[in-house]
User: Which sequence fits this backbone?
């Protein structure tokens, strides 16, 4: 009985040293730990596809996993990966909207409201890049999401799971989204 | 009846998922061919539009950052995740151009058993990245002058007409990619790299001469080292290629102009030795003159050479990162530009590799959809 309790306690113990894999510090990894290892890079990639900015994408990935852990705990269940992927796209799209509002405020009140903006990065960001990201938030959110997922490398089955639709519907939604974004961006060379 | 837009769109990415009736229709219908062409053009265009610099994710750092945020929140602090500091690391991730060559070369060496590479003298059941410079690689290659290498010339490359034939020739199932990157060519080529046995026989006389050329002296040799032989048994490998003809590349032609990648599968090589153990030979060779101390230290740190294969990652061009591929731990090497990336992993006694002109994310997508 004691052994069983000890094992149970070990099984639910959170990894205190998150800088190392659970197996290396003698702690049984939780489902959340495994999910983090397996999905973090993918979630960051989805956000990066939307934002076009690796640093901002990592911020989004952190936010997604922070939120996921707070909502679902150490054993988030089989659908957590799909949740995280969709959340990455939605959070990244929100980030673009927030930045657009911030940019509008800056125009009115000056740049001191936004010390986090990196002038060098701003210079490096191409007009095309910004135009594409702006277009992503003008098209319907579900279309922007399917684009983010597909162009981050998800399979149709994975997209269906993340979007909560049938796999046969994915191609249709993707095709419409592609046509819509092309229309929004126009035929300007990229 | 013409297939729907959705079905046609999927046929671009996942051709095997579309049923045969539709495939046959599309092959003979000019209207559908036009529709597919437009979709393909849109996909290729969007792929460029949505491209962006890609970081190599530092998983331990990401874990630590999340832990700090959770600790701060648990202590009553306001939920506020610290923003990423833009560092040279982010910028450097854009400078990985050329890593493809090194990454692909590393993968091919492991997958096909390049005869002259010292680093293949281990039996891999795990993979570990070893940062090396171009000078380090030259030094390691020089180790072959400490003995004689034999057997590698019998390894051949043979095109095969289809997956079944290639699989039968190699003795394992040809890898099937369920999800191709957007805009990638759909029809693969198949080939088999024959197996063989590569040997390295340590020769004390040659070793002394090589050490002298390197400006040093050999350390004391353990008993049985002189004349000891390592034999690496390499199984046949199936090579599935998209957008490139590896056979033509081997003969100096066929340089791909668009997106191109290969998927390789081969059973894990095995190593036998006479005279001394694999570990003893490794220890000795890493102590001879001319071997960079840093590389020797990295390889020693990996542990038992019968368990782990070191994969050289050029430090000038990028770094490797550990990734999970369908439950198996693997290595990701590459950049975000599409100039090149590679993923290598081992599962159930089979080494798999994906390499080509892909972004790291695309390479991961291909790897994770490979069965």
Assistant:
């Amino acid at each position: 009985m004691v052994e069983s309790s000890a094992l149970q306690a070990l099984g639910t113990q959170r990894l205190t040293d998150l800088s190392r894999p659970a197996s290396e510090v003698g702690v049984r990894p939780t489902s959340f730990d495994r999910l983090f290892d397996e999905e973090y890079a993918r979630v960051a990639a989805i956000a990066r596809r939307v934002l076009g900015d690796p640093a901002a994408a990592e911020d989004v990935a952190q936010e997604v996993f922070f939120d996921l852990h707070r909502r679902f705990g150490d054993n988030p269940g089989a659908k957590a990966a799909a949740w995280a992927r969709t959340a990455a796209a939605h959070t990244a799209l929100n980030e673009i909207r927030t930045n657009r509002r911030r940019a509008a405020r800056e125009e009115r009140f000056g740049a001191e409201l936004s010390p986090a903006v990196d002038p060098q990065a701003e210079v490096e960001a191409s007009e095309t890049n910004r135009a594409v990201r702006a277009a992503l938030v003008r098209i319907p959110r579900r279309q922007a999401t399917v684009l983010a997922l597909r162009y981050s490398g998800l399979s149709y089955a994975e997209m269906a799971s993340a979007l909560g639709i049938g796999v046969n519907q994915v191609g249709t939604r993707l095709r419409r989204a592609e046509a819509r974004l092309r229309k929004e961006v126009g035929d300007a060379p990229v | 009846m013409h297939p729907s837009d959705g079905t046609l769109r999927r046929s671009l990415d996942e051709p095997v998922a579309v049923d045969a009736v539709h495939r046959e229709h599309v092959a003979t219908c000019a209207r559908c061919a036009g529709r597919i062409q437009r979709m393909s053009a849109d996909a290729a265009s969007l792929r460029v539009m949505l491209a962006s610099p890609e970081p190599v994710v530092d998983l331990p750092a990401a874990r630590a950052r999340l832990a700090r945020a959770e600790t701060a929140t648990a202590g009553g602090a306001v939920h506020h995740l610290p923003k990423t500091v833009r560092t040279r690391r982010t910028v450097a991730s854009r400078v990985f151009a050329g890593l493809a060559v090194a990454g692909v070369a590393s993968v091919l060496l492991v997958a096909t058993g390049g005869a002259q590479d010292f680093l293949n003298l281990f039996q891999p059941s795990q993979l570990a990245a070893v940062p090396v410079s171009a000078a380090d690689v030259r030094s390691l290659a020089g180790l072959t002058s400490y003995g004689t290498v034999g057997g590698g010339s019998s390894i051949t490359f043979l095109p095969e007409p289809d997956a079944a034939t290639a699989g039968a020739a190699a003795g394992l199932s040809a890898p099937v990619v369920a999800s191709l990157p957007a805009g990638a060519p759909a029809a693969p080529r198949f080939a088999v790299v024959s197996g063989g046995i590569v040997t390295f026989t340590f020769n004390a006389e040659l070793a002394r001469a090589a050490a002298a050329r390197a400006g040093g002296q050999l350390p004391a040799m353990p008993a049985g080292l002189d004349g000891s032989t390592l034999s690496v048994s390499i199984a046949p490998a199936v090579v599935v290629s998209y957008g490139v003809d590896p056979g033509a590349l081997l003969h100096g032609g066929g340089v791909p102009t668009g997106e191109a990648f290969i998927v390789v599968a081969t059973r894990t090589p095995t190593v036998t030795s006479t005279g001394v153990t694999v570990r003893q030979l490794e220890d000795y060779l890493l102590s001879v003159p001319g071997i960079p101390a840093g590389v020797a230290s990295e390889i020693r740190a990996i542990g038992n050479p019968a368990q782990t294969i070191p994969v050289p990652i050029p430090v000038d061009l990028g770094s490797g990162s550990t990734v999970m591929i369908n439950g198996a731990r693997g290595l990701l090497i590459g950049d975000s530009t599409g100039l090149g990336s590679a993923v290598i992993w081992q599962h159930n006694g089979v080494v798999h590799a994906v390499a080509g002109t892909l972004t790291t994310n695309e390479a991961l997508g291909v790897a994770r959809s490979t069965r």
